[in-house]
Every structure is written in structure tokens, then in C-alpha cells.
Amino acid sequence: MWGPAGTPAAIVQRLAKEIAEIVRLPEVRQQFHTLGAEPVGNTPEEFSAFTRAELAKWARVVKQSGAKVD
Prior knowledge:
single chain, mainly alpha
């Protein structure tokens, strides 16, 4: 889940805690699996690191493919 840049840290931490609790609910996990998604419920720092790594990985793929925006 993403939020606006500059969201106060206290709000980010509260949302992360609440979302992690919700993601642990069996019925929520099942719904994610039904949709083909893998629920994670990681920390904001872990999510940020994952996002940065994914952006770097896919930027390389796009560059190597030669894809262009029309």
C-alpha cells in the first residue's frame, strides 16, 4: 500500500500495524490467494526496499528490451 509523500511517520507506523493485523486474518489471506496475490504484511522499511529493488530491476528490463513510449 502506498500513501502520499510526506505522510507523518506516526501515521505510517499506525497504518502498517493495522494492515499487518488485517493481512494475518485467514479470510483475508484466502481472498488474496483467490485473486492470485501473496499477502506479505511487511514493515514500511521492508516495503520501501522491495519497491526500490523492483524499480531498478524492471528499469533494466525495459532498457534492455528497447521498449519506447508511444
